[in-house]
Amino acid sequence: MSGINDGHLLPPSEFLLHTHLPSFKGVAIFFIFCLAIVTVCFYFLRDQIKGEKINGILDSVYFCIVTITTVGYGDLVPNSVSTKLLACAFSFLGVALVGVILSKAEDHLVEKQQKMLILALDMRQ
Fold it and tell me: What stretches pass through the bilayer (predicted)?
């Protein structure tokens, strides 16, 4: 294929190589699933996290978000080997997932721009 498809300069997105990759929706669902699992893990390990705690589930979600964003306020701190290892693993997983989510969002925006460009070229002809 020479890169021209039905008179268009850019191929439609279904012909691009990235079509076999997971969708933004799929990645977001996987992210929420991972967040839920790790929140439950931290909930069961909440006694091994030192700091002022208010509510078990809320503190677990908060600790997950602070860990995944690598903010690390320091108000809740892992106090055992198991919670430290889980926090490290989740931090790496979270950074990777956030990167994939941002990449998928960027793909979506570029695809919209491509469609608008093709539409503008069609209207011009």
Answer: 26-45, 57-76, 82-102
Q: Which of 56, 57, 59, 70 is closest to 98 using CA atoms?
A: 70
The domain segmentation of the chain, as residue ranges, is: 25-124
DSSP structural state of residue 23: P
Closest CA to 49 of 73, 81, 77: 77
pLDDT of residue 9: 53
What distances in angstroms separate CA 92 from CA 7, 38, 64, 70, 99, one per listed residue? 45, 13, 12, 9, 11
DSSP 51: E
User: What pLDDT sits at residue 2?
Assistant: 47
Distance, C-alpha 97 to centroid of its chain: 4
| Token reading at 123 | 């209207």
Instruction: Reply yes or no on domain 25-124 having CATH 1.10.287.70.
Output: yes
